[in-house]
Amino acid sequence: MSEPSSQSARGPSSHGGPLASWQIRDVVASEIDNEPTLWLFDSPPIPRRGITIVVGYRGQSKTTWAAWLAAEATKQGHEVFFANQEDHLREFIRPRVDAAGADLARVRFPNEDAPHLRFPQDVDKLAHYVQARKTALVILDPLEAFVPLFANPVTARDALTPLAHLSRFYDCAIVFVHHFRKSGGKTPWEAMGGAGALGNVARAVYVYGGKPQPDGLHLLFGAGEMFKPTEAEEGVDQKNVRVLAPLKLSAAELPGGLLYDFQTTDVGLPEPVPKLDLLGETTVDGETLYAGWRHFAKKDEEAESALDEALNFVLQFLQDGPQTVNALHTAADELRIAARTLKRARAKIKVIAYQEKGQWWVKLPPTPDTLPEGWSS
């Protein structure tokens, strides 16, 4: 058998190739001390070392929740860095932090004329800031503004992994506020986007938004029992209830969710400012909350879509003048518009019904009260 050539004997790292300077660095397990998990808060559990993502649909007061979180951190003596790239600092963000009762001397924002942070390229910049200010909580709102290509899982990991290292090194909780995709998804993980990378890197994920509103018929047949008002919600308008429901929590059991009352308060501006009051706990988790939205909101959306179709039909059918009620109903039947939906549309427009020549007729009022988008009076 011939001896190996000198090149093969040297191995891949000894001849100036791409692996020439690559080495595995290790540490012996016996040299590592066990450490407990550090939490910024016990309720909700926010890890001090790692990334937390709070995700929900747009327009559900997630930024108001972030202001509540910032205020709670300052009440414990923590320094907070709150960066928001969607809303006006002086008109929107600062008033909400004030309304939440924060120690304003402990909350800092990026200068309005400063370049926006982007990750991973600005990780070192944030690390220096956190170290200098001894920051315990960084809030980044929304995620897509700081990681523009997060939908690509490789890009998402490349951006979030060094931020997770930063968080662990400086014991600084990093909380991203995130929007569900407009197209949604069958599960909250799918609706988050990023092909699972966001949830994989994050140590904690919470779903936040309004409480699903099952109607009496659903409750009668046992659907939506978990969304019935609790004792903590007594006297609270259910439309104002917000839910923070856990979806993932590493190093601990999944906790209960939290209930909030969405209110407004006076901070010296012409208009009252939104704020959240903590009501209590709920057993609803993130999967259940999202499923409730999909189920009940889907029914509402379908009903509203059918009503919009009926509104357009009535306006078009009557725009050239009065028609008989029979003709209206016959045309609606051909379009499969339900009689109940047609009745709602007529009432919403305030269609005028009158009897003439032995028949009932309908006509539009001088100025219809309800005009769908694209119509003009």
Instruction: State mean pLDDT (0 to 100 scale).
Output: 86
Order of helices and strands: HEEEHEHEHEHHEHHEHEEEHEHHEE
What distance separates the N and C termini? Answer: 96 Å
Question: Mind telling me which CATH architecture of the largest domain this is?
Answer: 3-Layer(aba) Sandwich
Spatial shape: elongated
Task: Give the strand order, joined by hyphens, for the main sheet.
Answer: 5-4-6-7-3-8-9-10-11
- Briefly note the CATH topology name of the largest domain: Rossmann fold
Number of strands: 14
State the CATH superfamily name of the largest domain. Answer: P-loop containing nucleotide triphosphate hydrolases
CATH class of the largest domain: Alpha Beta
By DSSP (H or I, 4+ residues per run), the number of helices equals 12
How would you portray this structure in words?
Helices cover 35% and strands 21% of the residues. By secondary structure, it is of the alpha/beta class. The chain has 2 domains: 35-284, 3-Layer(aba) Sandwich (Rossmann fold); 305-363, Winged helix-like DNA-binding domain superfamily/Winged helix DNA-binding domain (Arc Repressor Mutant, subunit A, Orthogonal Bundle), CATH 1.10.10. It is elongated, with a radius of gyration of 28 Å. It starts with 5 loop residues before the first helix and ends in a 14-residue tail after the last strand.
Compile the SSE list and pairings:
Elements: H1 6-10, E1 39-42, E2 45-47, E3 51-56, H2 62-75, E4 80-84, H3 89-99, E5 107-108, H4 123-133, E6 137-141, H5 143-146, H6 153-170, E7 173-179, H7 188-192, H8 197-201, E8 204-210, H9 216-220, E9 241-249, E10 257-265, E11 273-282, H10 286-318, E12 323-324, H11 325-334, H12 339-349, E13 352-356, E14 359-363
Parallel strand pairs: 3-7, 3-8, 4-5, 4-6, 6-7
Antiparallel strand pairs: 1-2, 8-9, 9-10, 10-11, 12-14, 13-14
Helix pairs in contact: 2-3, 4-6, 10-12
